[in-house]
């Protein structure tokens, strides 16, 4: 209650709920000004004595006032009645109250418009679909700096490998010189290079010969290093586009130190160029995933060039076609199938045009599709494949499983429903990780381990994005377990260093070629195991056609009898067909045995020199016989 001075009966609840009594004054309605009974407007029912009493007791209060809320104001005090908010307001007679004049309510202060909210100083960029990390400009810059360190380590690991020319290197570079002569001057090529090369002889061999003319074999190997560094960089860009910077760093780091990458970075053959072209095609496929569908055609030329450079690269063209569909499926749905069809059609058209231009390529059948079967067991091939790429493959499997279960790391719950669907995630993991198994599976089918240590790297290039995602999930959000990622990288690096050194251990041919130089000229005929090596180093004093290898020969003796295989070599040695014979006894043991037996007691030859060398498989020696 307020401190108004009214009789006790004025607060009687019975009065509040009762109908209006005219004796208490006329009720004019809630919130209206009501005149207190006075001299000018008293109700006629009031007596004269009542009117006089009011004027005499309170001469200053001629009228009362009802406020806007329905209460009465008396003597500066306000009396509020809750029931007066719903019923007509009336003023009870209060002879003890002091009445005051109505106070004008102050005008409301002008309301100023609310200020516009300030623009935030930083807006969170869109989060990548596989991790907690955001792909900001700062993270991209740091990623490129880390990539630079990865490339420097890769270059150092490759350049530390040293040795004289391997037989494949010598053959391809030497063939390139003859192909250049054929292109420029029409000089006949001394061999059917198209019939047994594992790539088109007018592509990489020509490039290698051009570099060899300027910088020698070391320069050609540097070109291979550039190709492999480019492949690692493209893998980084492709993985960053698919996932995020952390996954891209992991993919590039692991791929850069596996033995195939380290070995091919200092090996002058078709492989490095083919891997680079496949990486370029895959990068274009991923990069144009949100571009117009026709943009995927840009990936067709490097894919076809990769196949022409090394025919074994054709094993991975279907992977590129399916990748073209999956990278656009999230944004285009079923229309992504048209992208794959367009890409496949463009590659088919280019392959057809290339076939018409180049003609029949027997090397595809002899070196790839119909390669001679060996005697290596499936268990042996699986064991070696696991040794050369097992760690990276298992990391890719882990990344695929983690990606299939959850597209994100789980530290941001609001992203759980954002990202690609489970079907696309599973399909992408199966495609990329499964591609790493193509080369081992095909060579298990052929029962041969020839070049498997190189071909493993082709598949691991495609498994790289999932391996990068695997190492990113292994480390965890906010680099929770960096030691696990470092341990995996170091283990892969150690295995890559050791294995690449073992595979790169070629016989040192410097002493052998130095001994042969005064013994050869452009008139003789020479038999040599791995004849490509002396033919390359002595090309200034001999021709390629003068050298005979030990991989196969047909011979007709002086009596007209025809021989083939090891017997042909034995008959030729007995007839003193060769002016110089060079053997080391490990490449073709059957032929070496036949030739050695034919040299025993042969009056036409003498042992001129023995040059020794050491490889990862042990000590060896070149034995050189000269015709008397």
How much of the sequence lies in strands comes to: 5-15%
Based on Cα principal axes, name the global outline: elongated
Mean pLDDT over the residues = 83
Helix content: 40-55%
Report Rg. Answer: 47 Å
Major β-sheet, in short? 5 strands, mixed
Topology summary:
Elements: H1 13-17, H2 48-57, E1 65-66, E2 72-74, E3 77-79, H3 137-159, H4 167-185, H5 193-196, H6 204-242, H7 245-257, H8 259-264, H9 270-287, H10 300-309, H11 317-332, H12 336-358, H13 362-369, H14 378-405, H15 422-435, H16 438-446, H17 452-475, H18 482-503, H19 510-516, E4 526-528, H20 532-537, E5 547-548, E6 554-556, E7 562-564, H21 566-574, E8 580-583, H22 589-599, E9 605-615, E10 618-627
Parallel strand pairs: 4-5, 4-8
Antiparallel strand pairs: 1-2, 2-3, 6-7, 8-10, 9-10
Structure description:
By secondary structure, the protein is an alpha+beta fold. The protein contains 22 helices and ten strands. The chain has helices at 13-17, 48-57, 137-159, 167-185, 193-196, 204-242, 245-257, 259-264, 270-287, 300-309, 317-332, 336-358, 362-369, 378-405, 422-435, 438-446, 452-475, 482-503, 510-516, 532-537, 566-574, 589-599, and strands at residues 65-66, 72-74, 77-79, 526-528, 547-548, 554-556, 562-564, 580-583, 605-615, 618-627. It has a five-stranded mixed beta sheet with strand order 5-4-8-10-9. The chain has a three-stranded antiparallel beta sheet with strand order 1-2-3, with no helix packed on it. The protein is elongated and about 160 Å long. The chain starts with 12 loop residues before the first helix and ends with a strand. The model is unreliable at 1-43 and 81-87 (pLDDT under 50).
